[in-house]
Amino acid sequence: MGLVIWIATFVKLLDDIFDYVDDSYGWEFEQNVTFYKPYSKSLPTKQARLLTLWDFLGIPHKEKKQLSGSRLPIIGFEVDPNGMSITLPPQSKEDLVTFVQLFVDSPSRRRKLGEYQSLAGWMNWSFNVFPLLRPSLSNVYDKMKGKTNANASIYLNEAVKDDLRWFIKHITNANGVLLFEGMDWNPFLE
Ligand SMILES: *[C@@H]1O[C@H](CO)[C@@H](O)[C@H](O)[C@H]1NC(C)=O
Ligand SMILES: *[C@@H]1O[C@H](CO)[C@@H](O)[C@H](O)[C@H]1NC(C)=O
Ligand SMILES: *[C@@H]1O[C@H](CO)[C@@H](O)[C@H](O)[C@H]1NC(C)=O
Fold it and tell me: Which of 86, 88, 117, 124 to mutate to test ligand 2, by most ligand atoms within 8 A of the CB atom?
């Protein structure tokens, strides 16, 4: 996908197309639309041109995934560039809280490294919207340090549990909206 975005940017001269794994997104002026024949509808010009490029390269895509509008879901977050906010949808937040709570309540005193990794990955993703909750992973990362076998079992100590409870408490009380204050948000660097 990196190469495709490179072609879009430097050959097709489509500015500001961003990509995260297989999720590409960008902006366009509201009035700037182009009729895209395969879907028989008008799309933001840049999006129509990107799809035309995909067609040319033989990259398949589905109509229901080609979204546009003033708010867009991007890697699971609701992004509103005009309101300058990103929101974690309530259902996603609830799922995450349930997952973390189950981890804390594990009947066994041990969890596998792979499970720690899933937990850390999911919580880390939520820090895009809740950057102040980052410290809640410090003991988790400490426990994972230097271990590579996904089956290795790691003791679930009180320090880890306390951090996770702290995370649950704060994420539950937060409204799930991050307002940008002229900052540059980038899922790669954040
Ligand atoms: C419409 O969008 C295309 C692609 O982003 C851009 O090249 C073009 O300049 C835009 N036209 C207007 C009138 O904004
Ligand atoms: C946390 O997520 C960011 C992207 O949002 C990523 O760059 C970083 O490597 C992740 N950290 C860990 C330890 O996985
Ligand atoms: C982890 O456990 C699974 C199932 O018990 C096993 O198939 C796999 O080979 C193990 N992996 C390692 C790296 O020990």
Answer: 124
